[in-house]
Amino acid sequence: MASDKAWGGVFSEATDRRVEEFTESVSFDRRLYAHDIAGSTAHARMLAKVGLLSPDECQQIEQSLEQIRQKIEQGSFQFSAELEDIHMHIERALIDRLGDTGRKLHTGRSRNDQVSTDMRLWVRESIDRIDCRLADLQRAFVARCDADADCILPGYTHMQRAQPVLAAHYWLAYCEKLHRDRSRLADCRRRTNVLSLGAAALAGTSLPIDRDEVARQLGFDGVAANSLDVSSDRDFVLEFAFALAVIAEHLSTWAEEWILWSTWDFSFLKLPQAFCTGSSIMPQKVNPDVLELIRGKTARVIGNLQALLVLVKGLPLAYNRDLQEDKQPLFDSFDTVEASLALAAPLVAGTELNRPAVAERLERGHLDATALMEHLIRRGIPQRTAHGLIGRLVRTALDRNVRLADLSLDDFREVHSELDESVYEVLGVENAGKAMSSYGSTAPWAVAKQIAHWKDLLECGDA
Ligand code: ARG
Is 161 left (phi over 0), alpha (psi -120 to 50) or beta? Predict the structure, then answer.
């Protein structure tokens, strides 16, 4: 026989060595070994149930698959490019152990539905892992809220000082983003958790398989209804890659903000030294490398999504070997985001707010101007008019290099007769923050309610 491949019957020539090297995927799809074995075990049990395997054959297959799993985990399993992928490796090891019984496992299935099933199992598990990491990070933000409860920070738009915001309001803003990330994952999980096995190569099989039984054993919520569709479907891979890219974007935004806030110029934050590195030439430097790399690695996660979208673009139905290229980008996105999340939570927990440095400069920048404008609006002055009047007051304060609260009653009266001593009740960052009253605002009562909500949702204890 010229070819000893599983598919070699029709071949009269052996595969070129260079082709083996080029087409192999076992160097990266070996991480699907446990999912492949789980899928094969469920498949074998089903085959026994419908009479395509004897109970004894099924038991032998199950036992051998378990031994192969252990061997892989112990690191004593031999991988080689000749056997292409993880599916072939496990099947060959089974045949080496069981002979003809092992040769029966591939009954009523193809590698096309097998690899899709393995990937769905892997994505499902990976979604759950990322979800746990996201919840940990949310808890780290919520845990800061009590400690930083009375701390006010400048809020920015266009990177210009805008309005005062409670530190807890900042932390909970990230909780919201991470919450949407989790709900995106949950959504993706629903469409992932569908059985593809039984689609066989593309058309289904004439053998009396029971797909519902396999779905039940593997914990899938349903069975894919169209064999042609499911053997080509990688939407779940794209969706997971997208959800990971949005998580990476959120982490990158946070990292960028904290990099700025930890600079000497801002001095809002003191990052834990264990999460920083130094410079080989400038002895005074403590650099936020972890945050920079979280931000930097986001580029690759976005690139992976792009690669996957382009990969499936224009592929005709059903399986095409191009689809083998879905794994490296997706695995890389998962590994990168998981590693970033694993560092983000302790970084959030270990960072200190530099309250004196914040307090010292908080009254600069006229962060209370909007609260003063709304004070006028409450007295019936049209918003556009009030905006102009307060703008004039800000100009006066800028000219004198003072705060709005330092202007005299006469200064205010000169601008508008409705401005009396009550203006001082909304001036100053603390008053301006307290003046907020809308749902979702940075008003202390609103933030306190949100903290309680998140503690309850994340089971943080003392809600
Ligand atoms: N290694 C392949 C992949 O990841 C498995 C499926 C191969 N199927 C085939 N007909 N050659 O896509």
Answer: beta
How many other CB atoms are there within 10 angstroms of residue 303's CB atom?
14
- Listed by start position, the domains of the chain span 8-107, 112-360, 362-460
Report the topology of domain 362-460: Ribonucleotide Reductase Protein R1; domain 1 (1.10.40)
Q: What are residue 165's DSSP bridge partners?
A: 153
283: CB partners within 8 A, 6+ apart: none
Compute mean pLDDT per 10 residues along the chain, 463 residues long, and list them.
79 94 98 98 98 98 98 97 96 98 98 98 98 98 92 96 97 98 98 98 98 98 98 98 98 98 96 91 89 98 98 97 98 98 98 95 95 95 96 97 97 92 96 94 95 94 51
- Model confidence pTM above 0.90: yes
Q: Which fold has domain 112-360?
A: Fumarase C; Chain A, domain 2 (1.20.200)
Task: Say how many Å lie between the CA of residue 218 and the centre of ligand 1.
Answer: 21
Closest CA to 106 of 169, 152, 47, 163: 47
Q: Which residues line ligand 1 (CB under 6 A)?
A: 25, 29, 85, 111-112, 115, 319, 321, 323-324
CA 167 to ligand 1 center in whole angstroms = 51
Supply the residues annotated as catalytic: 158, 279
- Cα(289) to ligand 1 centroid in Å equals 39
Which residue lies with its CA nearest to atom 4 of ligand 1? 324
- At the topology level, CATH places domain 8-107 in Fumarase C; Chain B, domain 1 (1.10.275)
